[in-house]
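Researcher: Please generate the 3D structure of the following complex. Treat every line as part of one assembly.
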Amino acid sequence: MIELGQIGLMLSFVLSLYALFVSLIGIKNRSGQFLVSSHRAFDSSFLLLSISVFVLGQALVTKNYELRYVADHVSNNLPAFYAFSALWAGQAGSLLFWAWLLALFTIIVIRQNRNKNLELMPYVNATLAGILIFFLFLLVFFTNPFEKLGFAIANGQGLNPLLQNPGMIFHPPTLYLGYVGFSIPFAFAIAALITRKVDSDWITSTRRWTLFSWLLLTIGIILGAKWAYVELGWGGYWGWDPVENASFMPWLTGTAFLHSVMIQERKSMLKIWNVSLIIITFLLTILGTFITRSGIISSVHSFGESNLGYIFMLFLSTSILFSLYLILTRQEELRSRNKLDSFLSRESTFLFNNLILIGAAFAILWGTLFPIISEAVRGIKITVGPPFFNTITVPIGIALILLTGVCPLISWRKASINNFLRNFVIPVSVFAVALIFLFVMGIRSIYPLMSFALIAFVLTTVFMEFYRGVRARMHYDANVFIAFKNLLFKFRRRYGGFIVHIGIMLMFIGITGSSAFGTEKEQSMKKGDVLKIKNYELTFMGVDQFKTANAEAISATIKVKRDGEDLGLLHPSKHYHELQKQTMTEVAILSDYKEDLYLILGSVTEDGAAFIKAHINPLVAWIWWGSYVLILGTIIAMWPYRKRSKESQMLQGTEKQSQQSLTYQTDKETV
Amino acid sequence: MKPVNFVLILIFLLLPLTAWSSTTVSEVEKNLMCTCGCTMALYTCECGTAAKMRNQIQAMIDKGMDKDKIIATYVNQYGERILSAPTKSGFNLVAWILPFVVLIVVGFLLYKALRRWSINSEQDDEEMLQTEVEAQYNKKLKEELDKFEEGEGE
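Model: Done. Output below.
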């Protein structure tokens, strides 16, 4: 059975090489037969990789220690679902999973484009084959998941206890889905550059792929934050670890891309910028893997450091040089023939929004790489940790909130001063009222004050957009609810986008509240002792010891009262994993819309006394709620329109007209 | 109330409320990394080494040492890498300043580029308008001249 996995992997590698080879011959000879042959090779490669993934998954679940990867990542007492999740816990398994996803996405893209993008597709195939070959090359020659241990063992080393959390079952795969997904728009961008067809076609063809990748990357990042919050036990959700940063950077550039493509679609401008943005986004996904795997930058995520980093570096450098060559030799085609109608236009604000997003990505990249730069220049190793990133990114984040609010207030193409001022009256008034209200409520620090007031500003602009849209639709629809529904579902991209903005603002409420107003208190407690923090009274009831499936646990019982009202019992605990000789903190959280009570059990003495640390983290729940809204908005924005019959095409035409009339009306209303 | 006084009061109110208390473990640990090799900032780490470091810090505070002295003690022992952020001096200043310099410079260039693009297009509009006006004028002139010539011919 194990041999089947190994054979599958090797044959898949050979078939990917074949797919690249015949794609190139097909391009050279302009022969469809070769391309069809490459499609079959991709299908077979995917099938074989599926077998390899299945074999490794089964070996992990059945604890087949014949394989080194299984012996290194699971143990007898590890529950089956965690054993399966070990597929992406180590280097070889995660790269196999990555390659399998890429093969899957490739065959989907080929099927989607059977009768479309005929000029681009051979190059898309070749690019995707090139990326797949790279990952399979690593798996076959450097980090083979089917390597045998060579001797018999009774028990494996087990899974890193940090990874034994339900969130970890989903966090890495969703991140990988996002990372791998960006290969598709990247491949189309490369194909567009090679064929010199750099108009908006490659963008419209990959719009859903980009949104899908962005959504999955977003979910992956949020799951990672949630995991850090409940598993790392320090009271926060984002530690600016290099690997966290590595996932955040492509998210920022991907977000910039999602905005700037609108200008190319509308005005056929920014071609060079959009191509560069998607190339950078793809390269940043590879950089993330390089950072994780090379160990060049110390990270809490460096579970499997190896010399693979330098091969990633080689791949990264080759991709950069090739992309640069293409961009430099296609400047004429990439040059914009159009100009902006006015400086005061939504196009301009989108570009400033891009500047802020790319500036944030640069600042994070700079901070992540600065330890290497410092060592190279001064010969001194330094650390760039949370205080640096918080200082640098907070003002940038506030500027981003401001622009999120400003963009929808300015019309496309050209905004008159009157229009501009009239649109701003209500949101700016709300901003001013919020600012005064927050000040009176006792908020004095400038950042939270500005952040909350600007969030109020942004939410007002978004609600105004919905209000105007519904009012305009009332000319066609019977009542407000139907008007709202039609507005949302007929103009999904626009209003889905606004819902995403609402989600992001809710998340910013949580981020601002928890970072600016958190309090903490720690106390050594004996049975019956009370710890008072804000309006909470925490009574220590004692500790219990018990065994879990794979750890010894010690758990404290704390009775919680808020303003005298009994809220029940919480059980912060510590789990000792004998196999890995590691103690894990399992926090207890009581959450509501206002704040989280977050309890950590510290040391426990023989007489049953315990050291308890309590955090009050305001508004954290808003981060998770905001993420649900964001997910909903993205799904609405990317939801496909039904395949059009002739009749519906006519309707679509009418709809387009009505959209134009709606845009005109909404613009007119704001003038 | 005079406007100046009002502004002064406003500035005073806007100043962050600084606690005039002595050093706390929490203040110090935000500036340090855990030394166990986990690569986490001390305040984010819950391992045994982190607990020992916190005890050490508490002991130093009890001895009357302030935040800067405690941090300096750790830097002497472990080097600069114990700090959770680069110092704001010497070459490290580049780390702090460069992101903002890049943002400001690129922002300025973007502003100039947008101005140029939009001004050019406005100029183009004007040129187009002028050409249209001229064409209309020439057409009218030609018609008048033709009429005149026809009249003369009669």
